[in-house]
Write the structure tokens for this entry.
Amino acid sequence: MTTQYPWYIYFSIEAILMLIPYHGVNFYDYLTKSKPWRREIQKRKSQGIELEEASVSLHAIIHFIIRASVWYFHIYHKTMSNMNSISLISFVLKMILFDGLGVIFHQYQHSKFGRIFNHLQHHQLRTPTLASSAYTSIGELILSSHVGWILLGFIPGSFWDHCLFLVISSTIKRLCHSNYDHPWEYTKLYRLLKLVGSHEHHVHHLHPNKNFADLFIFWDQLFGTFLDPKDVDGINNYNNIMTEKVE
């Protein structure tokens, strides 16, 4: 495989594309001005702990250093430099394996030995929001995202299918970590693909030993850690709770 461009060209393109899940989702949130539909949970499950402001700048610096290093390695060793094609098989495989690794790493962070990554600080948030996803330690950020991105970069494919994987996986992770009810989560296609929605991830913040996956429900079903949001009070029956209170 021949290198078509210097490593920093690939890194620059990826950096621009990765603005989509981070700033695009925030822009969507601003435009829709969606009303949070889990206010009842927020009232009953008080956080009770003041979190320190997350260092977004430090997270961004770490992210840029790691991603630049990864693309330098890929170009130097000629492991990924094809700019002329895209492999949907490679994209799907990366999505599935990345989430599988994520479930394992996520469960580890909830274990006795994995607490050094300080993931439990994140779980002080009982009602996850788009903004609260920034409350993570650097170690947690690297383990939950960058390790998987680095490992999956070695799966044969092209630069474009790898970027597509990065953008789509990051977008789903951002949107599922929301306090809003997204309409597409109820579509047949979304359910058929067994994608994680804000319902499923919200369950994880109420029951930390359940629903570890960020992208696909079937990983939790496979590991026996899936808890259906329909069985959790206040998530799918919010209107019923409010009706009972009125009566």
Q: What stands out?
A: The first helix runs from residue 7 to 17. Residues 37-50, 237-247 have pLDDT under 50 and may be disordered.
